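Quick start: read one record
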Amino acid sequence: MKKVLVLVLASLLIFSFAVSAQEMTLRLADNQPEGYPTVVGAKEFARLVEERTDGRIEIEVYPGGVLGDESSTIEQVQFGAIDFVRTSITPMANFEPAMNVLSLPYLYPSEEYMFQVLFSEVGEGVLDGLKEAGIVGLTWYDSGARSFYTADTKVTSPEDLEGLRIRVQESQLMMDMVEALGASPTPIAWGEVYSALQTGVVDAGENNYPGWYYNSHHEVAPYFVEDAHNRIPELIIMSKITWDKLSAEDQEIIKQAAVDSTEVQREAWDKRTEEAKKLAVEEGATITTLNAEQKQAFQDKVKGLYPKYSEGYEDLLDSILNFEMEE
């Protein structure tokens, strides 16, 4: 009788474990609002995972920062309180300094060049460096190209920026870059940029097309130059605690679903960018496109910063600069 009871209990335990292994509800945090391209990508990721696991694994997406700000949610991922976070690579440099190299100004000739680098062994190597911090890097997302926009000056060369007061983020790299271009970096809170441009506290700002247009900066700084000084990718990261609970098969499903979601996210970003650009022009803004030679002039001005911000990661920098694109 005891043997029968033991067998029954063992069977119940095995069944219970099998059910829990099959069914799982995970949470993904994003501080951007509903409909934003990263949230669109995150929801596509969730859809693909649910589809490819026949509903065994469900991912609930929480946009709008409802689970905490970016720093808080990254910390929660480390301790397994949240399973996934969509984040900029900037705070991830605290865990993997190689991320700083990916943020260097004028590093990528084009968006496609950047994504080929990120989805090569070069990018995977950077993601691997996050594991020691209890984080698994899954895929890269787009956040557009940051460019300069000015109140009164049409910019076609670095010389046109000389002496201008340019609003920048609280970032030493950004301040060093603006100084290298001959301008004066002026850190100002994002919510104060419109009035600073309007009143002449600063002469210029910098951001991507959606950031420029949807915050109405085009009204007070209508000259946008496509210098694309920064292409800073974003990430979907996962808690290693959650990752280690998964079977190898489910790990592969989640990793591939994340990678596949990037295409939808990039399409959503491109659509948002083109819409912002079109509307700004219709409302009287001026767009300046630079040729390869003009872009090179900007890069030449800031290359002196590369050694400072790639110290210890010179091989990574060389791999990016000398990367051979696939056709």
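The two ends are 70 Å apart (CA to CA).
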